[in-house]
Amino acid sequence: MKPIEEQTILVTGSTDGIGKITARKLARMGATVLLHGRSREKCETTAGEIREATGNNKLKAYVRDLSSLSGVRRLAEDIRSEYSALDILINNAGVGPGKGSFGKRPLSQDGHELCFAVNHLAPFLLTHLLLPILRNGSPARVVNVCSAAQQRIDFDDVMLERGYDPYRAYAQSKLALTMFTFDLAERLKYRGITANCLHPGSLLDTKMVREGGYLPQASAESGAEVVVHVATSPELLDVTGQYFAEKREGRAHDQAYDAEARDRLWRLSENLAGIGERGNRGDRST
Predict the structure, then answer these.
(1) What is the pTM of this model?
(2) Among the options 62, 170, 190, 214, which is catalytic?
(3) Which of 53, 1, 59 is nearest to 232 (CA)?
């Protein structure tokens, strides 16, 4: 395991909330931190704030919208063109139910249900596209920020065209990301890359929680501590395929342990993301 000062780490969704605090903590540890956000202004402001707070000049910001699969591809292309190795990928960017979505079914730019698109398809595709440089950074880690809010996926209505409910959309997307993590860990076994997911804590003081109409019960700082622990702790170097409930190994929704359901989700995700047997945009060796 390389010293943290020699590691390059991508944190998606790092201009606000847990992602921003995570990026600041990693920068303070001396890592090269790749920031990501949708707004150029927020990216530049965040980079400046972190640089001033930590004295770390090894920061680079990328502006891409992950609600678009083409945006995900461009982000991967940006990073692969500038970095030959990536040590840690933290898929943190996500969207919540949001109080403004009740009664509506928000869609991504590609026409997919928004939570499923941003919280699952985007990290699914981004991870595949960055696998070559993650292998170059071996031993490398993929850390997916999930949630304890998980609901069973109905494969007959994955996009929730019938009876849309925003909380169900969010909970289904977070289960999908968890299922992806478990399968990815299996497929990458013995290849020098671990994959784990985590629940950072309930009702943390983030924009997503507040927009959902909930009263925060804990700090975003505590959630970022969980992310940094799973991403960098030496004791987790060889741990893979785990769901962490904060800093402890926990148990996800029962469907996450259904190999047939996971395989079905993987094939659906490949098809929607345009990779796998019918596509050539991903790393097919997984």
Answers:
(1) 0.92
(2) 170
(3) 1
